[in-house]
């Protein structure tokens, strides 16, 4: 399986990606990949160290004739999003990613691929190991925990880095140069509810939402993709309005930065309403599928009879729950007034868990305008507090303000046009890049972000274009030849 990947060109990049993907590297559990990277740098006899939060820094001297060029900091994050299909048997803590070639794409079998940001890491590793690539002095910065809090970037202290220019290799369209990004904040609502015994003469069902695309809750939030938590809530809301139902549990979504693909609930209904209930669920499901048919052709909504549970939520608690979730904004909230076609502010209703008297709702709110980010977070807070839940904010990180006069931007624009005979798109993205955070302690560092084409990041449909990686590698090598003088 990895043999097929290792034969792809450029081999130096794909071999390092295969090596990296053999190492389990979930966010907040990066001990093995940190040690892997420390061992790698030391094996190359390069200056290698780990800072106090776990970021790994490796430095390589300039090649002959490039000593007068500015030092470059190459930056990517070591962790990856863990998502898998419900029917995929895979242990992210113990197994390496199972990859395969599909035409011009590399994919994983039923899981996320880790191209985000593994291709960036592999590219940097290939440059560190190279013996025939001209380059200025290089400083590799491998950050941790980008996907679940950006704590690596936040914990990097001033004075550690020596580079004057930072190349962040973590965007996902190979014709785009990013010079700005959104900031984010986690909004978490916690509630409790009283359970009661299930009435007699009831029938129980599992309601299942599956088959959605999912994806990156920043880069792909504008696509109108279905959110499994919102679809489930819509069905439950309608059912509560028409029938006497009871909710036993709900489990939907998971990671804050992944659009939820699946949701499962266990509910009960009066046995006398069985036929009418099943007919209504079917009708509502047909309507939802029709609405989402273009973007979500594989959406599946299933209702299956299960054993009757012992307890359910009290009616008042479940009414408050479904109304609060209905009121919570999801998707694009506002478009940028200053940058055409850029999402300014959005929210991802990422996680809904209801079980054994406890409610947990998790959201990730993003915006390129910090005040708008807080405004939407307060809107969510208000909806959940009206339901009686306790709301907390966490993981707040800043956006990255665009600098259209950046010197390194001019270099990349020029070299891209020379290489590919077209102008690149210069943009800000709605994802959370680490540049904004790093810029707080390194305000004078000139930064830019770019990368190969990756689709479906943060979902098991994640794939990376082979031809795009070739294009990206060619671009990186040309950039290094044209770094400005000190």
Automatic annotation (TrEMBL):
<feature type="domain" description="Peptidase M20 dimerisation">
    <location>
        <begin position="209"/>
        <end position="291"/>
    </location>
</feature>
<dbReference type="GO" id="GO:0006508">
    <property type="term" value="P:proteolysis"/>
</dbReference>
<comment type="similarity">
    <text>Belongs to the peptidase M20C family.</text>
</comment>
<keyword id="KW-0378">Hydrolase</keyword>
<dbReference type="Pfam" id="PF07687">
    <property type="entry name" value="M20_dimer"/>
</dbReference>
<keyword id="KW-0482">Metalloprotease</keyword>
<keyword id="KW-0170">Cobalt</keyword>
<dbReference type="Pfam" id="PF01546">
    <property type="entry name" value="Peptidase_M20"/>
</dbReference>
<keyword id="KW-0862">Zinc</keyword>
<dbReference type="InterPro" id="IPR001160">
    <property type="entry name" value="Peptidase_M20C"/>
</dbReference>
<protein>
    <recommendedName>
        <fullName>Cytosol non-specific dipeptidase</fullName>
        <ecNumber>3.4.13.18</ecNumber>
    </recommendedName>
</protein>
<dbReference type="InterPro" id="IPR002933">
    <property type="entry name" value="Peptidase_M20"/>
</dbReference>
<keyword id="KW-0479">Metal-binding</keyword>
<keyword id="KW-0224">Dipeptidase</keyword>
<dbReference type="InterPro" id="IPR011650">
    <property type="entry name" value="Peptidase_M20_dimer"/>
</dbReference>
<dbReference type="GO" id="GO:0046872">
    <property type="term" value="F:metal ion binding"/>
</dbReference>
<dbReference type="GO" id="GO:0070573">
    <property type="term" value="F:metallodipeptidase activity"/>
</dbReference>
<keyword id="KW-0645">Protease</keyword>
<dbReference type="GO" id="GO:0005829">
    <property type="term" value="C:cytosol"/>
</dbReference>
């Amino acid at each position: 399986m990895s043999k097929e990947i290792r034969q792809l060109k450029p081999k130096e990049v794909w071999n390092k990606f295969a090596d990296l993907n053999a190492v389990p590297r979930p966010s907040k559990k990066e001990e093995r990949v940190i040690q892997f990277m420390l061992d790698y740098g030391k094996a190359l006899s390069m200056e290698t160290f780990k800072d106090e939060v776990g970021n790994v820094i490796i430095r390589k001297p300039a090649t002959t004739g490039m000593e007068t060029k500015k030092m470059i900091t190459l930056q990517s994050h070591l962790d990856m999003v863990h998502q898998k299909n419900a029917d995929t048997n895979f242990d992210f803590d113990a197994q390496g990613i199972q990859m395969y070639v599909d035409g011009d794409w590399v994919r994983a079998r039923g899981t996320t691929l880790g191209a985000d940001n593994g291709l960036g890491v592999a590219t940097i590793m290939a440059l560190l190991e190279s013996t025939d690539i001209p380059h200025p002095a290089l400083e590799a910065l491998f950050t941790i925990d980008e996907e679940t809090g950006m704590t690596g970037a936040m914990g990097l202290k001033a004075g550690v880095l020596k580079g004057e220019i930072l190349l962040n290799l973590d965007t996902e369209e190979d014709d785009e140069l990013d010079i700005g990004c959104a900031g984010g904040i986690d909004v978490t609502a916690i509630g409790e509810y009283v359970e009661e015994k299930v009435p007699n003469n009831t029938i129980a069902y599992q309601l299942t939402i599956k088959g959605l695309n999912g994806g990156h809750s920043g880069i792909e939030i504008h696509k109108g993709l279905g959110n499994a938590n919102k679809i489930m809530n819509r069905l439950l809301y309608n059912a509560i309005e028409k029938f006497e139902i009871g909710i036993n549990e709900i489990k939907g979504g998971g990671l804050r930065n992944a659009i939820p693909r699946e949701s499962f609930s266990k509910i009960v209904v009066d046995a006398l309403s069985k036929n009418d209930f099943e007919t209504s669920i079917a009708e509502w499901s047909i309507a939802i599928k029709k609405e989402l048919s273009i973007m979500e052709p594989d959406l599946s909504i299933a209702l299956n009879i299960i054993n009757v549970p012992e307890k359910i939520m009290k009616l008042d608690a479940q009414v408050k729950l479904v109304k609060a979730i209905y009121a919570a904004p999801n998707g694009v909230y506002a478009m940028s007034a200053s940058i055409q076609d850029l999402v300014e502010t959005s929210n991802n209703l990422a996680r809904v868990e209801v079980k054994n008297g406890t409610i947990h709702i998790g959201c990730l709110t993003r915006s390129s305008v910090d005040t708008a980010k807080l405004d939407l977070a307060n809107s969510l807070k208000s909806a959940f507090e009206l339901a009686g839940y306790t709301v907390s904010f966490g993981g707040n990180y800043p956006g990255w303000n665009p600098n259209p006069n950046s010197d390194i931007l001019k270099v990349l624009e020029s070299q891209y046009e020379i290489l590919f005979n077209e102008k690149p798109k210069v943009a800000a993205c709605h994802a959370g890049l680490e540049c904004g955070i790093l810029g707080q302690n390194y305000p004078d560092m000139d930064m830019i972000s770019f990368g190969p084409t990756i689709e479906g990041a943060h979902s098991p449909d994640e794939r990376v274009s082979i031809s795009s990686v070739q294009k990206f590698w060619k671009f990186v090598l040309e950039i290094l030849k044209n770094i400005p003088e000190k």
